[in-house]
Amino acid sequence: MSTLERLASAAGARLDVRILPDLARSLRGRGSAAATATNVLRAVESGEDGVAFRSCLELFEALRTVPSDGVRLLTVDAPILTGDERYDALIAAVVEDCCVNRAVATPPWVYEPQRSVQPWYVAGLNSLRADADRETPPVFRRHGVMILAQEFARA
Length: 155
Description:
This protein has helices at 2-10, 23-26, 33-45, 49-65, 68-75, 85-102, 129-135, 138-142, 149-153; strands spanning 120-121, 145-146. It is mostly helical. It has one domain (23-153).
């Protein structure tokens, strides 16, 4: 340590040693974008739309609560396509929104054309469309996912 401190000092720097948790180990049990897509695929095949949507909300929550390096680790691998373009767009929107808000590089797969849809109003009720038009964050809008702010509160 003393040698490292002398080298740092000679370079006009200061040595700062910290003990940090193993990020990969701390992310175990957190759903990655790829794992979320697999879960959504299973739910779509089983006709469980609510489970598919909940999986996407869990991804949103995981990305919101991990360190920035964790966001990169959980989103770097391109997820499979789920068989439902709405959920492919939702997963991409969740990842891009988180990366933008956390100042993390957005993975290239997010911009693939198959990860966007014609406007999909998540709430499904015509009476809520004006609210969704007003409340949808720009990243979600770009992917065609029209979503109410209250949907994120369910995460």
